[in-house]
């Protein structure tokens, strides 16, 4: 296509403006410049309407486009020519005077080259360059090039030139003209080619952006101005690269994601059609590609003012899906993005929460860690950015299996607590939102890891009660923090102080050893202390080495010892402690190293033992706060605590500190305040105050006579008429702090012993407590007087006499407030008996035997010692618990343990299977606490095996945890204290097996030795214990266990050596135990390293002539034990359909999820019945039982209303607890066929059911009204446990008992029925 032609001059001569001579090659450059300036002036003054002049100077216009000018080497000449040409295009517009396409191309390329002169704004010619740019932009001269075939080359060159010359010295006008020039080309052309687009986009790349910020800004504004036109071209480019994968279309293909980010920041409309393409990329098979897209979208979605998530929901949902990507880096990137998103877009928190929840449980440690960082960072910026769910994820991760994750979660929560709760940076509402943090952080102190404990201590010292605060402020923090903690957090905090105090004592003992002469015994003691200290530091292996090194340094450096001694001194103040720590650290920093692990370990030790919070000044500050609360002048309400709570918890805090820092309390001011507390009405306040005096008042008698004279009458009054707890503390306080304690105790003992009156039980409880503790603390003085009190009043008048009739509501347990005063007095009477005996520590008067028979009778009679049926069921539960606990307490004293018979031991152990949930719960807790302190003999650990029969899952789980803890403690003790094999009989956990086998052989439920159901129960109990014992095969312990059980089969039951049936039951339990061991371990057939010893109290010595190689388990019984069901027979036509038979429960496989973490890796893989006893019974307890009822009854049909466990069913009024074996057998059969109506499936067979006493021992004497009371009141129910009767003792129907030597008939050996016992039942209370 040719441009329209202007009329050429006829004569072909060039007309120059007036005064301008001809411009030829022959004149000098200076002359050319001089003449061109005049030509420029002429063209500048011309306008488009000057037709004559346009025609006149047409030849000149053509001449100026000649090669002479376009290729002139002189810069000034080229500039002037370019200005002329620009004016020519302006004047002759819209037709150009040049007809050749090639010429036009040359001209525009020439003009473009001249625009480079714009770069130097200080050049004398810059104004002419600016004029050139302005002219071109105003006229849009470059639009002429649209008609050229290769116009793109010109535009690309122009764009590149303009972007290269723009710099920070240009003013706004220059940028504006450049934009006008380029935007006209983009908007008025047919489209933007890829090369031209590249020339714009390249300025957005980071490398170019950093080189020329002005070019970046120019491109940004240009794109924003031309968004409507250029968006299509951008979409096409990204489509080619992202969707079609044509990376060759542009050199910028590798920068697509960077470009998308930049373009989005410029104007999201530029990517209107590109965003859907990213959804396709998010689903790429290439993990690295997905990662790149996720990184990009994270920036786009997370940008401050981004609305992308709202405008493009599909892409947002697709992006959220990447939180679950299989590629770890992708998930990690998503989690990191969440932090910015939460901070910049709180409205998206709801969408993110669910995905962060999943990632908080990610298998990758780094991802779980970053989830915490994400949430905490957002929370630190503004607590409102994180909802309760997100904070809940952090809370969960404080128990993560990885230390790095746990640490991040704990530190994050600590920082939030300090910011919002301590400093109140966002008001009370925010503080209330995260008030749970303080409790949660302290709960972590219960974890086994020493790293967790150390971090909690650090958090407490730096974030919860910052040690850097002034004493008054610091104690105020502690005072109100303690008042706001939940009970478990308080226990944890108390334990923390206790551990720190214990460690201080160890270091003190170590320093004392350094003062002694060097000896082998001294070195051994020192080594033991060092090992114990190392156990309280992280990384025990390294800690041991570093503590040895530290001990060596202590031995060589006397000044260091002096500093350490001052640090652990009871009188060391917090400020002195800081100086000591600094000095010790300074001494150990030489030689200086980049990392000094030895120094770090010593710092850990110093941090734990240094008193950073509590000293005499701190105690005084706490007491002042307490006084203000008492006076009502404290700001308790502002701190969210009531006045009464502040006083109570303040005293509790002081009480705890009185154990760990007793010396800090020695001041008259402190004791005066405590005396005020003793006079307050709040019982707990007075009790705590007495205990503080007891712990800290050793110098009161000598140093503070005024305090002494005021304190003594108060203590006497509390011991006589205070609450039971106050009385206990008062007696102990007198014994601890006064020199004339005998006189003081006698002044309490005599009036109390004379005033005992069983007719007023309300006034008996406190005297009984005081008398019991007095007799225990001063046995030499009061043992004899107590004997007559025990004989004439405690036993004869109180325990053997029921004065009042209990509440017949049928409940098995009631709250403490509902317990009758008479029963409370009886419970205290039982405790008094035990305390009296524990004080004497001998059995010369045979009082212990009488007491044990009395306690056994209490258990046999189910708590109703007189069997007059006056006492209520809930009160009977209290008395059973008291009796069982009393026997267990006596067993802690060796002289009494030796006289406890196997029958009494079994009776005590069976309390853990009591029918009442609370009895089982409390007894198990007492049992565990005594065992874990190594106070009870090993045989009592066997009692936990019976917990396999507990119908409540939580109780089984608790029992298993107790077993794990006890076994761990015993193994650790043996490791720390090597001893001969003979002495291991009382400590080695494996030696619990003989006691367990004997206990299970005498289980009252075990009546039919070949009954599959009963054998499965035995197997459950055995596996409950063996599973924990066989977790590891340490020292070939599996073979040791096998050998032990085989040895038992070669002995006889010492309890009934001549009873074939008793011995058969023992051997059957042994065979079940061997079956379990052999099936669970492949190493049990190896040679046992030691020959096991057996307790002679339970087993006869082996007879050389007696070889017992008989197999007592039938093949069918083994099949049942292995598979959980007998072999199928041809008679049964239905498969997998259990038969519902009254009195028998079909086997149901427990769901694997029910036992959860309670089943270790050693759980039986091949036996579906493995955990049956722990789970199947939950049918009843977890479907129909109400947690709010004391003893829920599950009834679905009228049949269910037949209460098997009504009071009438539990026996006639005068019937004894021990029934004959034949009666038990017949009663079971009768129970199985008692009803022809099918039992509802939920009931099946009661887990620990027992036949009605009316069937077992004769006609029942209870009326129908009593039956209704029994069932309606909650005494019956499918889930209840069984009541056990003692196989040994019974009481007469006329309970007249001689003082001290309680006459309880012994076992009638010729009556087989005395060995069998009616079964008990359990309730499912929570």
TrEMBL record:
Residues 1128-1174, 1202-1326 are annotated as: Disordered. It comes from the Eukaryota. Residues 1270-1279 have a biased composition (Gly residues). GO terms for cellular component: chromatin; nucleus. GO terms for biological process: cell division; DNA repair; mitotic sister chromatid cohesion. Pfam families: PDS5 (PF20168). Keywords: Cell cycle, Cell division, Mitosis, Nucleus, Repeat. CDD domains: PDS5 (cd19953). Residues 1219-1235 have a biased composition (Low complexity). Residues 1150-1169 have a biased composition (Polar residues). This is Sister chromatid cohesion protein PDS5 homolog A. It comes from Aldrovandia affinis.
């Amino acid at each position: 296509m040719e441009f329209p032609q202007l009329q050429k001059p006829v004569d072909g001569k060039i007309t120059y403006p007036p005064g301008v001579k001809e411009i030829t090659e022959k004149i000098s450059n200076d002359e050319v410049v001089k003449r061109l300036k005049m030509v420029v002036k002429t063209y500048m003054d011309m306008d488009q309407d000057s037709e004559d002049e346009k025609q006149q100077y047409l030849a000149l216009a053509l001449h100026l486009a000649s090669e002479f000018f376009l290729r002139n080497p002189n810069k000034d000449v080229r500039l002037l020519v370019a200005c002329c040409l620009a004016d020519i295009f302006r004047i002759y517009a819209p037709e150009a005077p040049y007809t050749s396409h090639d010429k036009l191309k040359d001209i525009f390329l020439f003009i473009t080259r001249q625009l480079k002169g714009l770069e130097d704004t200080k050049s004398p010619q810059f104004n002419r360059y600016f004029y050139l740019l302005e002219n071109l932009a105003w006229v849009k001269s470059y639009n002429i090039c649209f008609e050229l075939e290769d116009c793109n080359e010109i535009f690309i060159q122009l764009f590149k030139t303009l972007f290269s010359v723009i710099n920070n010295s240009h003013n706004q006008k220059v940028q504006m003209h450049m934009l006008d020039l380029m935007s006209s080309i983009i908007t008025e052309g047919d489209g933007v080619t890829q090369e031209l687009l590249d020339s714009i986009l390249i300025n957005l790349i980071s490398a170019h952006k950093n080189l020329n910020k002005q070019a970046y800004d120019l491109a940004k504004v240009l794109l924003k101005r031309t968004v409507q036109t250029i968006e299509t071209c951008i979409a096409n480019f990204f489509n080619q690269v992202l969707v079609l994968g044509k990376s060759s279309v542009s050199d910028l293909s590798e920068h697509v994601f960077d470009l998308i980010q930049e373009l989005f920041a410029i104007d999201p409309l530029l990517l209107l059609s590109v965003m859907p393409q990213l959804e396709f990329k998010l689903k790429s098979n290439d993990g690295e590609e997905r990662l790149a897209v996720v990184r990009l979208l994270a920036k786009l979605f997370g940008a401050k003012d981004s609305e992308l998530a709202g405008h493009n929901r599909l892409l947002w949902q697709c992006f959220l899906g990447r939180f679950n990507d299989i590629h770890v880096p992708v998930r990690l990137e998503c989690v990191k993005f969440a932090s910015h998103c939460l901070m910049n877009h709180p409205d998206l928190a709801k969408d993110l929460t669910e995905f962060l929840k999943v990632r908080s449980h990610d298998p990758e440690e780094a991802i779980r860690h970053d989830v915490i960082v994400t949430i905490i960072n957002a929370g630190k910026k503004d607590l409102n950015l994180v909802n309760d769910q997100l904070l809940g994820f952090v809370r969960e991760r404080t128990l993560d299996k990885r230390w790095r994750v746990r640490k991040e979660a704990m530190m994050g929560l600590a920082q939030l607590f300090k910011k919002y709760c301590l400093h109140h940076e966002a008001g009370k509402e925010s503080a209330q939102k995260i008030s749970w943090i303080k409790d949660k952080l302290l709960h972590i102190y219960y974890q086994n890891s020493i790293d967790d404990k150390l971090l909690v201590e650090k958090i407490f010292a730096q974030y919860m009660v910052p040690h850097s605060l002034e004493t008054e402020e610091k104690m105020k923090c502690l005072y109100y923090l303690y008042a706001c903690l939940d009970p478990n957090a308080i226990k944890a905090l108390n334990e923390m102080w206790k551990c720190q105090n214990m460690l201080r004592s160890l270091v003190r003992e170590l320093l004392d050893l350094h003062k002694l002469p060097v000896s082998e015994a001294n070195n051994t003691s020192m080594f033991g202390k060092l090992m114990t200290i190392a156990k309280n530091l992280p990384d025990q292996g390294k800690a041991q080495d570093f503590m040895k090194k530290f001990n060596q340094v202590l031995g060589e450096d006397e000044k260091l010892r002096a500093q350490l001694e001052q640090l652990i001194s009871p009188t060391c103040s917090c400020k002195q402690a800081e100086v000591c720590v600094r000095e010790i650290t300074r001494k150990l920093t030489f030689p200086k190293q980049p990392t000094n692990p030895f120094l770090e370990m010593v710092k850990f030790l110093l941090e734990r033992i240094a008193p950073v919070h509590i000293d005499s000044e701190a105690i005084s500050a706490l007491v002042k706060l307490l006084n203000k609360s008492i006076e009502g002048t404290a700001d308790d309400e502002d701190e969210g605590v009531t006045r009464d709570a502040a006083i109570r918890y303040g005293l509790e805090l002081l009480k705890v500190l009185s154990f760990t820092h007793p010396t800090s309390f020695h001041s008259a001011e402190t004791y005066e305040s405590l005396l005020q507390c003793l006079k307050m009405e709040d019982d707990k306040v007075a009790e705590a105050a007495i205990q503080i005096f007891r712990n800290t008042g050793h110098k009161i008698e000598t140093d503070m006579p005024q305090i002494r004279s005021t304190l003594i009458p108060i203590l006497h009054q509390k011991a006589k008429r205070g609450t039971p707890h106050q009385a206990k503390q008062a007696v102990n306080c007198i014994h601890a702090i006064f020199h004339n304690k005998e006189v003081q105790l006698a002044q309490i003992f005599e009036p109390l012993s004379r005033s005992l009156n069983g007719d007023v039980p309300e006034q008996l409880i406190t005297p009984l407590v005081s008398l019991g503790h007095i007799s225990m603390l001063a046995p030499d003085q009061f043992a004899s007087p107590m004997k007559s009190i025990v004989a004439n009043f405690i036993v004869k008048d109180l325990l053997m006499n029921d004065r009042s009739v209990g509440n017949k509501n049928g409940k098995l347990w009631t709250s403490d407030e509902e317990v009758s005063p008479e029963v409370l007095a009886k419970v205290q009477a039982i405790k008094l008996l035990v305390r009296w005996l524990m004080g004497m520590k001998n059995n010369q008067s045979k009082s212990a035997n009488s007491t044990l028979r009395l306690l056994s009778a209490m258990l046999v009679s189910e708590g109703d010692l007189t069997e007059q049926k006056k006492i209520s069921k809930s009160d009977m539960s209290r008395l059973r618990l008291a009796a069982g606990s009393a026997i267990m307490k006596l067993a802690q004293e060796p002289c009494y343990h030796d006289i406890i018979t196997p029958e009494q031991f079994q009776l005590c152990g069976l309390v853990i299977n009591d029918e009442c949930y609370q009895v089982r719960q409390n007894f198990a807790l007492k049992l565990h606490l005594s065992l874990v302190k190594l106070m009870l003999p090993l045989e009592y650990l066997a009692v936990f095996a019976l917990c396999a029969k507990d119908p409540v899952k939580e109780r089984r789980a608790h029992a298993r945890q107790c077993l794990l803890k006890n076994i761990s403690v015993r193994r650790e003790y043996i490791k720390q204290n090597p001893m001969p094999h003979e002495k291991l009989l009382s400590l080695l956990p494996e030696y619990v097996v003989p006691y367990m086998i004997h206990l299970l052989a005498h289980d009252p439920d075990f009546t039919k030795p070949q009954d599959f159901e009963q054998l499965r129960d035995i197997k459950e109990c055995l596996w409950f214990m063996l599973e924990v014992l066989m977790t590891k095969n340490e020292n070939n312990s599996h073979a040791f266990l096998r050998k032990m059980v085989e040895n038992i089969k070669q002995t006889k039951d010492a309890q009934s050596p001549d009873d074939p049936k008793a011995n058969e039951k023992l051997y059957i339990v042994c065979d079940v135990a061997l079956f379990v061991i052999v099936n669970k371990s492949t190493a049990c057939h190896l040679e046992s390293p030691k020959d096991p010893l057996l307790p002679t109290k339970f087993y006869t010595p082996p007879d050389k002539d007696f070889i017992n190689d008989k197999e007592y388990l039938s093949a069918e019984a083994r099949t049942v034990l292995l598979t959980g069901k007998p072999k199928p027979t041809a008679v049964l036509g239905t498969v997998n359909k259990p038969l519902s038979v009254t009195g028998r429960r079909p086997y149901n496989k427990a769901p694997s999820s029910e036992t959860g973490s309670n089943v270790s890796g050693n759980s039986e893989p091949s036996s579906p019945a493995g955990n049956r006893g722990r789970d199947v019974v939950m049918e009843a307890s977890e479907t129909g039982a109400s947690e709010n009822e004391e003893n829920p009854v599950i009834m679905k049909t009228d049949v269910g209303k037949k209460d098997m466990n009504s009071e009438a069913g539990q026996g006639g009024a005068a019937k004894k607890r021990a029934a004959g074996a034949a009666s038990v057998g017949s009663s079971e059969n009768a129970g199985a066929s008692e009803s022809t109506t099918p039992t509802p499936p939920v009931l099946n067979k009661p887990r620990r059911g027992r036949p009605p006493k009316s069937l077992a021992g004769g006609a029942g004497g209870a009326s129908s009204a009593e039956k209704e009371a029994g069932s309606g009141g909650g005494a019956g129910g499918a889930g209840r446990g069984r009541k056990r009767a003692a196989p040994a003792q019974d009481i007469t129907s006329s309970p007249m008992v001689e003082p001290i030597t309680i006459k309880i008939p012994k076992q009638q050996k010729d009556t087989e029925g005395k060995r069998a016992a009616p079964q008990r039942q359990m309730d499912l209370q929570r």
